[in-house]
Structures are given as structure tokens and as C-alpha cells.
């Protein structure tokens, strides 16, 4: 029978709950013996989880066959949470969501459970003794939250351990070419589905390529410094590319207690002359607007009010409103595969749209909710381009030329092997959101760790053999049994 050491950072808020729950969860997993080892840090600096994991390993490597490096605020809650032995490094977390302790007993399904990102290698990670020695353990240089698991995955890649290689296939689409003067596509809002889409939660996605930045000044072709990608006019709701090189998502709403209309705006810089897949998600229940670029969230804003109703207003691709004397916002460049949903999509669905398209190569929708409109520009007649969603929202195009192009080439990603267990996250909502948005958060500790990681990548991980278990220094302050079977070890680092 294999012997497993589960090494965890000590957290007085979770240690008791974790221990009792873990003992209960694993009572029927009889192919291994285990011990919980809680590492308590004595230091004035922020938590160094990687170093604590290294120390826990060093103190127990001669007594155990394999090791699980585990967060104490993450509990296993599905039968697929499997702690059995493996010869290769593996992530045990197949999905997760934030919960309150005790709620795990009432969970009936895991439909809302996701991963923060495909490369996620934290939470609960299993290593054999041999493999952990090969990668020299964790880096000792990450203080505070985040990036020690990114670093660990890269160590596995460098040492050519068993890590999945996934090739993101190229995506070819039919695009419309817009001249920036009088090119646009008009989508009527005749049927009820599309007419009322922007009155509540909705999602828009599109590929686009701009030929330079929009002209500056209100008097330049009445363009008002913006190229509209997808817009519902009056008060222009939708996606556009602005002067200065920003992708912008905007909705209009009436604040509570006011009759005035106000915009809710998110924008982030993007280069010209490059293809991007962008999306905006409006959650009218949470009252939030979220902007995505290439499947990743880049910004989120909350609002407090009612979305503006647009009645019978049409939608436009490649223009703000071609019938006005101002704010026409004609697009100059190329637009491909525009989609719209009458509900909010989740993070993982936005990533799937980027990686596979709205409809994958097998002809299946990649989203759980059916779109109300898809304009892929592949079919039509005369001046009509078809809505292929089956909802009949066929659009009329003006001065638009169509052609095919590869929008992104094959790219290679390294991903951990992963079991399919579902886990519940117990810490604060702020901590959870920071981890969900690791690459974008402005939390100072995470930003410091992000810079540390980026420098290591730039240096091609040359310090890997000198930064890790082999260089870990510490002093034991206190060591005590916990619940008879387990252990708490306090160390000075």
C-alpha cells in the first residue's frame, strides 16, 4: 500500500473543517495511507506557499511514496476527487466553485463549476518523490498569492515530464471587408427574440481586424473617432474600436431613481492590423458588463439601473448608425463571425468560442445556450447574408465584400494532466476573484509575483536548479501531533 503525505499551508480558519471533511471523504479510498501535514509560517513577510511545500516535502520524503500539495481552503466534494498514486505529475482539480463550508452536502450538480484557466496547476497537485526531485520542487521566490503553480508547471515542461501538449488549431473564417466610408450590414429586429435581446442579459462576440486607428475629430467623415464593430444605435450599445487603439464595450442604462441615461464603458488597448476575437457579456441579474479579448476577461464593471430599451431599432455590423449625420462610425477593416445570445455566457464558453468558433468542426454549438443570431457571411443571395442560427435574422449588406482568411494559426500549449474531481473553495470572495483573474488583477502581491514569473520565463528558467528544494533553508520552531494521525509544523523562513 502506497503512503501519501498531504502537505498544506496552515490556516486556522480552515484546518478543523478541512481535516474532518478530508478524513470523511477518503474513508472509502483504501489503496493508500495518508497523513495531513500543516505547515505554519513564522515570518513577517507574506505567505510563501511554495517554500512551505518544499519544507514539508524535505521533512517527510524518506517516509512517504508520493505527495499532494494542497490548499487548506479547498475541499474535495465529488466522488471523482481521487488521491490514488500516479507516476506522473497530475492536477486533482477538474473544476471548482466558491462555497460555504457545509453547503457541499447539498450540492446536486456541478454545472456552475469551472477552472479559472486551462493551465491551472494549483489547489491540489500530486507528485511522486522522483518527479518532485526532478523539478527541484517549488520556487522559493513567490511571496503572497499566485504564480508558484505556474512556475511549477513550467518546471515540468523544462524537465520533459508528462505534461499534455495541446495544439490550438488554426481558425479560418469568411470575413466582410468594410471600407470605412459607406460599408455596413443591417440586421432588422423584426422578431421578438432579437428585438428584446438588449433589454436584459445578453452576449455579443465577433472577430475583427482594423486597418489603422480611427480618424481623430468629430468632423472627419462624422466618424467621431470610433469604428463600430457591432452596434445597436440610438444610444450606441455594443463593441467598437476607438482612436488611441482601444477596444470598447458599452451599454446604456437609466440609474435607479433617475430618468437620465448613462453609459457603462470598458475599454482596453489593442494593436491595429491584427485579428482579435472580442466579446461583451451583460449580466442583468448581477448588473455587470464584462469585456473579453481572445477568450479571456480583460475588464468588468457593475452598474445600478435599468438597461435602455431600443424598441424596433436594428443592429448594425460595421457602423454605428449609417442614417445619421454624426456617430455613423463606419468601420475600416475586416469583421468575421458575429454572434449574439439572449443571455449571459460564462468565462469558459467565451474561451471555447475563441478556440473553436461558435460552431465547432463537428457542427456542434460550443455554448450551453443557443444563439439568437450568427452571421458567418458564408451564405446568402443578392445583398442578403444569412443568419445561420435558424432564427431567420437575415441581414442586408451595403458595399461589403467577402473573402476567406485564416484568423489564427496553430499554437502549442502545455497543460497539466488532470483528474475530474470537483472542489469547493472556502476563502473570501475577494481572494477567489483574485485567483480567477490572476493575470489581470492589480493586487500588489500578485503583481510582484507576476513580474517574478515573467522574469523567470524571459531567463528561460535558468535558475531552476538553484531555486527550489535544493536551496530551501528553514528552522523548525514547533512540531506537534494533530488529531493523533496528523501534524502541525511551525517553521521560521
Secondary structure elements and their pairing?
Blueprint: E1 2-9, H1 15-25, E2 32-42, H2 49-60, E3 66-70, E4 74-76, E5 90-98, E6 124-128, H3 129-134, H4 148-158, E7 164-168, E8 171-179, E9 184-187, H5 192-195, E10 202-210, E11 226-232, E12 237-242, E13 246-255, E14 262-269, E15 276-283, E16 288-293, E17 296-302, E18 305-307, E19 315-317, E20 332-341, H6 347-356, E21 373-375, E22 380-381, E23 384-385, E24 395-398, E25 401-408, E26 411-415, E27 418-425, H7 429-436, H8 444-458, E28 475-482, E29 486-492
Parallel strand pairs: 1-2, 1-3, 2-29, 5-27
Antiparallel strand pairs: 3-6, 4-27, 5-6, 7-26, 8-20, 8-25, 9-19, 9-24, 10-15, 10-20, 11-12, 11-19, 12-13, 13-14, 13-18, 15-16, 16-17, 20-21, 22-23, 23-24, 28-29
Amino acid at each position: 500500500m502506497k503512503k501519501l503525505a498531504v502537505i498544506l499551508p496552515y490556516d486556522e480558519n480552515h484546518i478543523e473543517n478541512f481535516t474532518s471533511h478530508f478524513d470523511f471523504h477518503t474513508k472509502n479510498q483504501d489503496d493508500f495511507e495518508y497523513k495531513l501535514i500543516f505547515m505554519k509560517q513564522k515570518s513577517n513577510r507574506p505567505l510563501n506557499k511554495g517554500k512551505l511545500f518544499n519544507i514539508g516535502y524535505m521533512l517527510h520524503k524518506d517516509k512517504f511514496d508520493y505527495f499532494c500539495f494542497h490548499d487548506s481552503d479547498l475541499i474535495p466534494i465529488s466522488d471523482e476527487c481521487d488521491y490514488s498514486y500516479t507516476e506522473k505529475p497530475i492536477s486533482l482539480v477538474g473544476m471548482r466553485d466558491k462555497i460555504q463550508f457545509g453547503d457541499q452536502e447539498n450540492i446536486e450538480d456541478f454545472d456552475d463549476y469551472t477552472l479559472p484557466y486551462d493551465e491551472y496547476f494549483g489547489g491540489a497537485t500530486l507528485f511522486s518523490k522522483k518527479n518532485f526531485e526532478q523539478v527541484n520542487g517549488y520556487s522559493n521566490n513567490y511571496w503572497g498569492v499566485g504564480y508558484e503553480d505556474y512556475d511549477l508547471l513550467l518546471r515540468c515542461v523544462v524537465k520533459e515530464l508528462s505534461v499534455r501538449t495541446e495544439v490550438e488549431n488554426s481558425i479560418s473564417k469568411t470575413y466582410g471587408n468594410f471600407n470605412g466610408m459607406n460599408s455596413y450590414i443591417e440586421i432588422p429586429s423584426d422578431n421578438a427574440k432579437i428585438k428584446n435581446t438588449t433589454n436584459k442579459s445578453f452576449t455579443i462576440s465577433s472577430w475583427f481586424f482594423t486597418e489603422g486607428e480611427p480618424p481623430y475629430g468629430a468632423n472627419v467623415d462624422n466618424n467621431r473617432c470610433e469604428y463600430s464593430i457591432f452596434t445597436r444605435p440610438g444610444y450606441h450599445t455594443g463593441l467598437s474600436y476607438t482612436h488611441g487603439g482601444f477596444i470598447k464595450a458599452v451599454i446604456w442604462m437609466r440609474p435607479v431613481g433617475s430618468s437620465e441615461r448613462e453609459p457603462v464603458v470598458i475599454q482596453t488597448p489593442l494593436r491595429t492590423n491584427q485579428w482579435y476575437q472580442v466579446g461583451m457579456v451583460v449580466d442583468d441579474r448581477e448588473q455587470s458588463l464584462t469585456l473579453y479579448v481572445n477568450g479571456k476577461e480583460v475588464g468588468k464593471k457593475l452598474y445600478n439601473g435599468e438597461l435602455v430599451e431600443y424598441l424596433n431599432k436594428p443592429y448594425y455590423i460595421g457602423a454605428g448608425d449609417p442614417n445619421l449625420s454624426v456617430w455613423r462610425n463606419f468601420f475600416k477593416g475586416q469583421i468575421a463571425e458575429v454572434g449574439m445570445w439572449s443571455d449571459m455566457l460564462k468565462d469558459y464558453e467565451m474561451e471555447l468560442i475563441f478556440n473553436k468558433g461558435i460552431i465547432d468542426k463537428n457542427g456542434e454549438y460550443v455554448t450551453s445556450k443557443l444563439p439568437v443570431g450568427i452571421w458567418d457571411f458564408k451564405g446568402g443571395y443578392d445583398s442578403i447574408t444569412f443568419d445561420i442560427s435558424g432564427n431567420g435574422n437575415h441581414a442586408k449588406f451595403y458595399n461589403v465584400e467577402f473573402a476567406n482568411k485564416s484568423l489564427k494559426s496553430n499554437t502549442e500549449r502545455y497543460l497539466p494532466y488532470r483528474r475530474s474531481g470537483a472542489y469547493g473553495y472556502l476563502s473570501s470572495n475577494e481572494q477567489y476573484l483574485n485567483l480567477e483573474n490572476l493575470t489581470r488583477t492589480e493586487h500588489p502581491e500578485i503583481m510582484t509575483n507576476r513580474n517574478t514569473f515573467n522574469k523567470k520565463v524571459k531567463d528561460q528558467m535558468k535558475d531552476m536548479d538553484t531555486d527550489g528544494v535544493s536551496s530551501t533553508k528553514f528552522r523548525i520552531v514547533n512540531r506537534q501531533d494533530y488529531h493523533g494521525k496528523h501534524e502541525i509544523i511551525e517553521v521560521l523562513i
